[in-house]
Amino acid sequence: MNTMQEREQILDGMTRAEKAQLLQFLLRDLNDDFPGIENRHNVMGGAACIIRTRIPVWLLEQARRLGVSESNLLRDYPTLTAQDLANAWAYVRSHREEIEREIEENERDDD
After folding, report:
1. Confidence (pTM)
2. Rounded-to-10 torsion of CA 75, 77, 79, 84
3. Same domain (yes/no): 29, 65
4. Rounded CA gap, 45 and 56, in Å?
5. Which domain holds residue 78?
6. Which segments of the chain are extended strands (E)?
7. Could you tell me the maximum CA-CA distance found in the chain, to the nearest angstrom?
8. Which of 12-16, 17-21, 69-73 has the highest mean pLDDT?
9. CATH number of the domain encompassing residue 88
C-alpha cells in the first residue's frame, strides 16, 4: 500500500467532525494563518509571540527542545493555555527556519 492509499484509508475512518478539524488545520497551514500568534515590530523585536503576551514562540520551542513538558510550561507561564501551545507548535512547524534563527541569535546573545 502506498502513502496516498494509507492516507485515504485513514480519512475513511474519520468522522465528519474530525475531517473538518483536519481541513481547518490544513487551510491554516497553507494560508500561513496562525490564530493566537502575532508579530509586532515593537514587541520583542518583531518575533512571533503568543497574542496578548510578550512570550516569543522561539522561547517556548527552545524550552520544549530542552525537555520542558507542556504541563511545566503552562505552570511556569500561567497566562498561557493549552491552545496557546498548540498554536505555537503549529507556527514552529511552518516557520522552522525563522525559529531556528531566533534560537541561535538568542543563544549567541547569552554568551
Report:
1. 0.69
2. -90
3. no
4. 10
5. 34-110
6. 37-39, 48-50
7. 52
8. 69-73
9. 1.10.10.10
pLDDT class of 26 with cuts at 50, 70, 90: confident
Reported as half-sphere exposure (CB side, CA atoms, 13 A), residue 92 has a value of: 20
**Residues 17 and 52 occupy one common structural domain:** no
Are residues 105 and 58 both part of a single domain?
Answer: yes
Length of the chain: 111
Residues 28/90, Cβ–Cβ less than 8 Å: yes
Cα separation, 77 vs 52, whole angstroms: 13
42 and 18 in one domain?
A: no
Q: What is residue 81's predicted lDDT score, i.e. its pLDDT? A: 95
CA–CA dist 19, 33 (Å, integer):
19
DSSP 56: B
